[in-house]
Amino acid sequence: MKEKIIMFVFCFVIFGISISTLFNQTVSLFKKDEKVSDVVKGHELETKKDKSGVKGAVDSFTSNLTGKKEGAKAASEVTKKTSGNTYIESTQVLLGKEDWLFYKSTEDGDPISDYQGINHYDEATMQAVADKLTNERNQFSNYGIDFYILSIPNKSSVYPEYMPDTIERKDTTSKTDLLMKYLEENTDLNVVDVKPTLVKAKKKQQVYYKSDTHFNQIGAFVTVQALKDKIDGKTDKLKDVKFGKITNHYSGDLARLCDMQDTFNNDTQYQLDPATVNTKIKSDKKILVIGDSYSDEMLSILSQYFAEAQTVNIWSFEPSLLDEYKPDIVVWEHAERYTDRFNWISLFG
Question: What are the AlgX/AlgJ SGNH hydrolase-like domain coordinates in residue numbering (predicted)?
Answer without folding.
Answer: 93-305
